[in-house]
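Dear all,

This email documents one entry for the complex benchmark we are building for the journal club exercise. For each entry we list the sequence lines for every component of the assembly. Then comes the predicted three-dimensional structure of the complex as a token string, followed by one or two observations. Please use this as the template for your own entries, and keep the labels exactly as they appear.
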Amino acid sequence: MELQNVVVAGGGVLGTQIGLMCAYTGHKVTFWLRSESSIGRTTPKIEMYSDMMLKDLEAAKALISNPIGKMLYPRGMIKTWDGITAEKIDELVKVGKENLKNNIKIELDMAKAVSDADIVIESMSEDPEAKIGVYKQMKDLLPEKTILVTNSSTMLPSRFAEYTGRPEKYLSLHFANTIWKNNTAEVMGHPGTDKAIYDKVVAFAADINMVPLRLNKEQPGYILNSMLVPFLGAAQALWANEVSDPQTIDLTWRLATGAPKGPFEILDIVGLETAYNIHIMKPESKVEGSLENRICKLLKEKIDKGETGINTGKGFYDYKK
Ligand SMILES: NC(=O)c1ccc[n+]([C@@H]2O[C@H](COP(=O)([O-])OP(=O)(O)OC[C@H]3O[C@@H](n4cnc5c(N)ncnc54)[C@H](O)[C@@H]3O)[C@@H](O)[C@H]2O)c1
């Protein structure tokens, strides 16, 4: 494991999952958070996602005899399914619990957090100004060796490279939500990214049990979101145009395609705040009465009620029942 010391900047939905995945696979993880109140929000997430990860790992025992078990097991938790046994899973649970307990710390002082970082994974809100502000602050604190990656879903690394002070060591490493099951890691450089650094990040992604997916050039939305964002946008347009309700739209998709989840079930996993941030960045969202504006208002209504998705137990569906 060449990149052993990992710093995760941002302890939200994805930042927490990424940090836990790194800790589970034996890396030393420091969450850099900006305030005491961030610690108050991130600590319960660390507990919640650790529990979910370990529960899914335990539950995989029941899949061993299942003929489609190899399609359903949590791929981030179990690197190789072939030859898996209940005893091997018990061992993974034991080591995983220890790693999750011993390999994580939280730090508010950025200089201390990054002082020996091999890699910093920036997973802060999808807000360009916030990202630039933190890159500028971090620039002179990072050791020479540190690689900096962003988990940004919608923005290109070339937009930020100049603010990092290390454009050749800066690129995107993009994860999918519930990373211990959906273990994709899209690796995307900008034109100034050093090829050797790119390869190190590919190797790191494999070390944390992800499947590295190489992009040969910059693409807004990478591979996954180039497909997913228009799909979710089309579903939200049907809702905002009052063509149908989220449950019926989901049912239509599931019945017609055999897909296990509809777009609003996926939105609950993604988190409504992230969906809102994507829509609000479009200039049309400022035009009163436009489709984007109505989608933003509908999402904001739910966010203000605390209905932000699975994360809070309620989104388009109620998960508390
Ligand atoms: N949610 C998803 O499904 C998903 C999937 C892949 C990638 N991403 C990307 O990951 C990143 C984070 O998304 P998320 O869903 O975890 O968001 P989130 O809203 O759950 O968390 C954002 C975190 O950023 C922190 N933050 C915001 N501004 C900050 C600042 N100025 N300084 C320090 N910390 C700050 C917040 O305190 C919070 O901990 C985004 O770039 C998003 O595009 C999200």
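Observations: The chain has two domains: 5-214, 227-312. The domain at 227-312 is CATH 1.10.1040.10 (N-(1-d-carboxylethyl)-l-norvaline Dehydrogenase; domain 2).
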